[in-house]
Each structure stands twice: as C-alpha cells, then as structure tokens.
Fold these 2 entries.
Entry 1:
Amino acid sequence: MAVRTITHATEILSVILGGGAGSRLYPLTATRSKPAVPIAGKYRLVDIPISNCLNNGIGRMFVLTQFNSASLNRHIKNTYHFSAFSRAFVDILAAEQTPDNPTWFQGTADAVRQGLRHIEPFESQYVLILSGDQLYQMDFAAMLDQHKQAGADITIATIPVSDREAPEFGILKSEEGMITSFIEKPSPSVLPEWVSDTGDEMKKNGRVYLASMGIYIFNRNLLFDILRNEFKDATDFGKEIMPQSIGRYKVASYQYGGYWTDIGNIRSFFEANIELTEEIPAFDMFDSHRTIYTRSRMLPPAKISGTTMEKVLVAEGSIISASRMERCVIGIRSRVGLGTTVVDTYMMGSDSYETLDELADNKRKGVPPVGVGERCYIRNSILDKNVRIGNDVRINGGSHLENKDHPLYCVKDGIVVIKKGAIIPDDFTI
C-alpha cells in the first residue's frame, strides 16, 4: 500500500480512539467495538479515519482499543500492509495494566495518556487525535497548515451548526480564528451569546454556532506535558482538557464545512448508510482523490437476476434474485431469494459462503440458508452479519413499533436490527 507524501515523514502522527462500549449502537456492538461495525456494505468505521490520514500523507497511526476489540484488531491486521520501504504503519494499542496504570481507559484523554509510553519513541512535532466512529472526509494537511500558520498550541476541528443542533454539542466561541470560550450542550436560552462568525454561506443557512468535532491537533510537547503533568487527573478531552486549555493556551478553530456525522446511535447509523444510496450522496465514496481503503477480498462479481432496483448499493460476491429493492445497501456475500422485496434496509452480508453440502445438511435440519429467503418483505431494517432469514418472513420497521430487545432482534427508534447470526424461521412477522 502506497502512502501519499504530503507531510514530512516525522512531522505528525495520528492517534485514533477506538471508542467505549458503544452501548447506544447495541446490538451491533454486542460482539464488536464501534469502529469495527461494518458500514456501506464493505468497509468498517475505522477505515474512515485511517483513509483520511492516508489521503493526507499521514502514514503513522496508533489505534487505541479496549472493548470487544478482537474483530477490530483482526481487521486492521488483515488490511493495512505497507511497503517495506515505507515508514507507514497502523499499530494497535490495546488497554493494558501497568504499574502506573492499573485500570482500563477512563476516557479519551486517559486512553491517550496510557498510550504515551508507546507513542513517545516515535519522533513528531504534532499529534493528530481522531475519533474512530465518525463519517467524514477532511483535509488534515490543510488543518495542519492552518495550525502552523496561526502559531497555535492546539487546533480543534469545528463544524457550524444551527440553533436546533447546538444543544447536542459542545459549542465554542471563536474570534478571528481563535477559540475564546466553551460551553457543553448549551440550553436554547443562552445560545445568542455563543454566535461566531462562520462565514456568509453558513450564516444564510442559520449555521452560526461552532461545534467541536472531537478532532484535535496538538503540539507534541504540549500534549505530553498536559497529560502527564498539568492535567494529569483529567480523563476526557472534550469535557475537561479543552475547556481548561482555552485562555491558557493558543487554541485555534479549523472550520470544516463538508459532510460529517457522528455515528452515535442506531438511527444515525441507519440514516448514514441509507443516505449513501442517493444519486449524489453527501459522503462521496467515488472520489478517486479520497479513496476509502479497506480489506481486499478475492470475491466474484455480484450476480443479479430479475430484480428491479432503485438506488441500491450492492457489494461484491452477492447473489440477488429479489423481486424489488429500493434504497438499500447490500453487503458482501449477500443472498436474497426470489419474490422478496427489500426497502430502506442495510444488509451487512456474511463472512463466508455455504457449500452445497452445508446447504443440503441445513435444509434437512430445517435451518434457512445464510441470507434472506423467498417471498419476504423487509423494510426499515438492519440485518447484521450472517443472519438466516427463512421464507415468507415479514419485517416492517417503523414508528409504530415500540423499542424492545428480543433474543433474535432489537427495535430502536423504529429500526429493526436482526442480530448477528440470528435464525429467523419461515413465516416470522415483526
């Protein structure tokens, strides 16, 4: 794998936060960490920050992992292989007990603090800190250039938001590119005091408040001093270190105006995937200058027979015989049977194909094949990996359903999530 050379080899390194338990994304995080959750049918969430780094010439990355990390570790190990002549790497730093740190990660800042002894031997002037569960495409090289030009100690990536969105974020006040104050999830009554100059275009759309994206550039020496000395008891960047650093250090704002979403819950995850089916999606996977890297698989092309499709993404290795599919993302090695209708659904696919002998043996046992059977109707759903859905199954998600956790599925905000490896029998109805 080649790494685009934009920045000096020793100028900057990246630390990607693997996330916490991801309870709001349950059941997708029941057996995997948030960054390992499959997205867009063939990628993992962690591929997004790693690809952003590679596309900007940042080839040295550490990924901090803790909860349900096995699949994430395996994906990174199988995906990111670099030339022997390159200094690039993606290294996993798992939570570990040491004489100095007997506990697991207590927050974002504590996670980086516990990883410092592994990061320290690698020379750099700057450290880029990223979240592993966001969907965006950002020019980190431009962010670093602005950081240097401003003579900043810390730069926070910010995104303009409206008064409707502002109470959900940490809001920053900016003057002439420098952040002067911070408030966590402000109430609507105080918002007028937190208006920043976001530019004419953003003002037209009512986006006049700067929200922190959880993306930071630190001068390396300052980061080490803050974590080890000045704020040695602080556990979180957004809630503790950033508010305390404003006014004490030169903290700049790098305003980002493109597409960005925080994959925080099932609804946002579902919408982020379905939006990829639009004619011109806000998140552009087809930009050759912003390649999204992932594990290379030697899979056959997708095979589609007699299916009417409208706004559908189909990953390689799929076998589709459905009647109709609309606004769907179909993952690798997916199988959909005759006469089935699938609408507004993300199907993650499967990890392997079944052999003819396995299919015959499962049929004798009354176990459906991996995938979706015949004459099914599936709407407003997420089908996790390796699900087996029988014939004549009806899954109709929507606001009429109450939130519930069933052994085979989960309902959240009207979205039906069929759990990983679940076996749904014939004629089952949700």
Entry 2:
Amino acid sequence: MGTVVACSTPFGSSGIAVVRITGSKSHKITSLLIKDIIKKNEHNSPALFSLMDVDGFVYDEAVVNFLFGPNTYTGEDLVEINLHGNPVIIEKTIALCCSYGATPAHGGEFTKRAYLNGKIDMSQAESVASLISSKSILGAKLSYKNLKGSLLKNVLEIKNKIISIVGQIEFNLDISEEDLQPNLISDSIKTIDVCINTLNQATENFNTVNVLTAGATVVLAGPTNAGKSTLFNALLKKDRAIVSEIAGTTRDVLENTINIDGVPCILKDTAGIRKTKNVVEKIGVRKSNEEILSADLVLYLGPSDSILSSENDNIIYIHNKKDLGESKQSYDISISALTGENLSELKKLILKRVSSDFSDIGFIITSQRQFSCLDSTRKQLSIAKTSLLNSSGLELTVEDLNLALSSLDKITNKTTKDDVLDAVFSSFCVGK
C-alpha cells in the first residue's frame, strides 16, 4: 500500500481543517512540506510549523502531529495537519503532498487500512460508518458500542456454542454412532434453540437500530387540499413547502428531517392523490404512491375508510382542519396544522409507531450485510436442528453447523474478498 492524503473535515470554509496522511512515506512527505526533519520517537507532541510551497514561500501555519505505526488508527505512520479551513489552502496542501509522492485517498481508505492492518475487524469498520452517519445521539451510542467490540463479543458467544456442539458430535462419531453420549441430541437441540433465539433478537433489533442511525421515513399523503404542506411546515416549525388553496400545488416530493424525542424522522411532503389529466401532476401522484409503499410510517390526511391502495399497514389516519369543526368519519387523531392544536399528541403517536423500547437492545447490528450474515446463520442452524430431529445423520448435522459457522465468521471476517471490501467502504466519506 502506498501513501495517501485526504482532508478529513467537511470541505468548505472553516476555522480549522484537518489533512491526514498515512503510509510509509507520510513523515518524509510532511518533512518536505514543513522543511524540517522529524526524528522517529515514540510519538512527537503536536507542534506549530510553517507550511511552505516548493519555492520556500510560507502560505500558512499549522499544528502538525506526527504519529508512528503500528500505534495509530491505520496501523501505519500517520500525520495529522491542523491548518486554517480555507479551501484554497487545503487544496494547496493536498497538491503539494501529492507532488511529493502521496496519492489522493478514496472514500473509507483510512478505515480500510485499519482493517487490513488488523487494527479493527469488519464489524468495527462498519460501526465507524454507522457512527459518522448516525442521525441521533442514541444511534451514535449504539454504533460506538459495536466499535468497542460489543458485536464481536455477541458473535463469539454464539460461535463458541456452535463449536461446542460440533466438538461433542465429532467426539461421539469417533467412538460409535450407535453408542451415543446420553442426551447428546436433546442437549444439542437446546443449544441450537438458544442460538436461534439470540439471532432472532438481533435481526428484530435491526429495524430499531436503523431508525436511530438512519432515521424513520414518515410520508405525508392524502388528497389535494387536505393540508399536507401546512402540516409539513407545522412539524418543521418553518415555511418549507408552498401552501396554496389551488389544488395540486405540490408536484414533487419535499423532504426534511425533524427530531422527535431523540428519534430522527425524515418527513416527506407528497403530491395530492387524485385523478388528473395534467402530465406533470400525474408524475407527482405516481411518486406519492411510491413513497407511501416504501415509508416506515404514513401520515394520511383522510379518514380510515379512504380508498388507499397500499401494502403499507403502518398508517395514521389524520383529521386535519379541526379548527373548522369535528368530522363524523373515523380517524386515528384529530388536529389543526394551522393552529397547532393536538400537534404534540400527533408527535407522540408518530414516536410510538416508528420506535420501540430502546432501553433493552443487547445484540446490535448496524448494516444490511451483518443482517444477511446472521440470517444465513439462523437458517443453517434451523436446518441442523431439523436433521437432528429427523435423525438424518450426524455427519450432515456437522456439515450444516460448519456452514452456520462460516456465515457467522463473515460478520468479523479477517479475509474478506476485495468485492466485499469495496462494497463496505465505498459508502465512507473521504478522509475516514
């Protein structure tokens, strides 16, 4: 692996920006940048240096921290340059580093190197991405737990149970299948059931964790002039959507995020659902129906007996415009988006529908890849259990259990294929 450089802070004007360099030439490249020689100590204390171009002209001052592998995030020699957050200065610094032998880093390359150098496992690498992208403090806390090894601990507990079953069965096979250890089958089934129940808990928790890290998608839907945009603005507490008495004002999907008691909700205001000959409005109605299908929760401004063709069963039927009088039709809640009446009750109802009890989340997974690995493990364990119940042969059971172990190992895999690595790290930001 060569030496790479990237800005680790968001690009744009700011008080301070951080440029990171990692690789075998990182210290040499930085020495050329500051025109100074760095002695290899345990770790040098951060110090103030002048940044100079190839002609020796100073263009900025920066606090530079020289770190020595393997005791770094990447496991390699690493440098952090804290300079003024002017995009021109940042680009100049990165360009100089590249002229001295570095190459621009790809997204997630620093964390990828940490993984390849054995500093973290795959589950911890994914936790870094989840921690950075988390849209709630509780979601960040859950991601941090996995970063510190919580997922690894849970995986190892299940793995050890499966290995124990395999060991006992193989021991008995070495002796005689006709003279099995008493209770071998029943005890193995009990242990498999424990593992399956634990995996069920983890996969069920995935949606909960996903809400905390990525946010719950809440779609406002209903007929034209139902007050969707007014409610959208009221929940955001700002005029984001255009409100008009003209039917069909909203043509495209508007999106914004709010936080309800620590749970992020991605609000989407959609076009009114009605039959129309207007080509543009037809597209808006089609988009509305698509958003309804994919939403975690639908806020439908209409009665519960509305003709709503949707496979989504998580719908709150809302009577809006309560200020104009009550309705005789059936709704889940009655509000006035215009006056704000019952908006707090609506938020409580939204929170109840999109969230679970976050206080008792033990086994945490934060990515679809982890979910797939655990789901595959669970299926293989179920097959192994069936073979034990049907007395299909202990050799087949051992094979099924080994396949379960293989799926489980993919969670933290130390030898993941390049295509999997690319898929995992491609979503990372540059500089991390």
